[in-house]
């Protein structure tokens, strides 16, 4: 079968589509015929050997995927059946014509979702839910400020926050991204690096309860200044490439505010059943239409490397998806 593999740790331009043996499921796996694969930031880091998880090349990329069950194997007790539509997530391995994925990391794909949308769901939306609910303690009617709001995690956060009953303010860098974030469900949108004053005005001077930050860099200090009393900044990533920001902790003391790390993968993958609980939590949001992943661009399997480059150069909106078939 065909698979997108990292052969040398020299970056996304050098990933290859190669012929590899079909996977053999274990007793804890379900065998899936892959239709679509999401493009994720960990794929980019894996291609350079920069991710915290470092498999030895050659290895197959692909963090999240969607397709149909070929063989539920010994895992039939999970309820999967041959031909059932599913989505799944793992550290890597989904960018192939078939994948043997652990049952606990595989989920029934609702009829409302296409395969492209299914491949955009697992990592971003489960990360957003973990960030807002588990780490952020988000409460109904609170206000959430979302940086990088036109990206995959950003749009997921906008929608999950709405599903949890919160008000959302998106921060983006261009008018096109503003329109995209608004279409994804943002209540308000602020354009440009100087967002602090606009956010204060939108909140009547109070500030926001939660900031989800996938950007880091220079925006971090102004994010702290945007927090209401007992506000929380959720640190998800550092996409700005400006280094890791530092916190003057006296500011946290004076404002009764928090900075909290969000490491969904390390948490969820070591707690069997946790992702399934999260998926059940998302289900009513999907059924209501609040959660509907915006697909920014689609690519053929042979262009997986180009999709990663486009994401790295910030040319994409929403979630990019590679179509396997």
In short:
Strands 3, 5, 6, 7, 8, 15 and 16 form a seven-stranded mixed β-sheet that branches. Strands 11-10-9-12-13-14 form a six-stranded parallel β-sheet, with helices on both faces. It has a three-stranded antiparallel β-sheet with strand order 2-1-4, with no helix packed on it. It is 31% helix and 27% strand.
Report how far apart the termini are: 12 Å
Q: How many individual β-strands?
A: 16
Question: Can you give the mean pLDDT?
Answer: 94
Radius of gyration: 19 Å
Q: Find the structural class using helix and strand composition.
A: alpha/beta
Report the sheet-strand fraction: 25-35%
Stretches with pLDDT under 50, minimum 5 residues: none
Q: What count of helical segments does DSSP give?
A: 11
Major β-sheet annotation: 7 strands, mixed
Order of helices and strands: EEEHEEEEEHHEHEHEHEHEHEHHEHE
Tertiary shape: globular
Q: What percentage of residues falls in helices of 4 or more residues?
A: 25-40%
Protein name: NADPH:quinone oxidoreductase family protein
InterPro entries: ADH-like_C (IPR013149), ADH-like_N (IPR013154), ER (IPR020843), GroES-like_sf (IPR011032), NAD(P)-bd_dom_sf (IPR036291), Zn-ADH-like_protein (IPR051397)
Domain Enoyl reductase (ER): 11-322
Organism: Nocardioides baculatus
